[in-house]
Amino acid sequence: MDLAALGDLWFLPERMAITAYSARWLLPFALPICLYVCFTDLREMRITNQAVILLAAVFVVLGPIALPLPDYGWRLVQMVAVLIAGFTLNIGGALGAGDAKFAAAAAPYIAGGDIRYLVAIFAANLLAAFVTHRLAKYTPLRRIAPGWKSWDMGWKFPMGFSLGGTLAIYLLIGAFRGA
Questions:
Q1: What are the transmembrane regions (predicted)?
Q2: Model pTM above 0.85
Q3: Hey, is 16 helix, strand or coil?
Q4: DSSP sequence for 38-91
């Protein structure tokens, strides 16, 4: 099998539903917020309201520039739908409130046609984040950040580490492989 054929096995299509244009507009503003969410959830086991509000505000302001207006409106509907679903999961104890709010703020960044790819990115990223966190937690790497709350939370895992990473990876891929 040659390398070109190996590339065909990759789970991403030749082009994603998100446009490269919109991903390139949104990525520079969303990326620092995603990295901040990863860091604060690792350090404090919480996703701050300021980060969630800023992520949503970036989309509200840049969305009309990055997307056609009908798509922009549907993406705002996505945000509300994910917020309702997230709070329902939070009430049931399946998801933290910060995770639910971050997922809602991140929802409008995702093109509807990319949901299956987003799920694949999230699954791979969740596994990698969990293994990385546990590896650092139970090895001398823990000394790099001795005061992080996530080290001492038993089986609880800082999902913001994976959620923030997933949005960042999705937008990065979209910037290069978008429609």
A1: 20-39, 51-70, 76-97, 117-135, 155-176
A2: yes
A3: strand
A4: HHHHHHHS---HHHHHHHHHHHHHHHHHHS-HHHHHHHHHHHHHHHHHHHHHHH
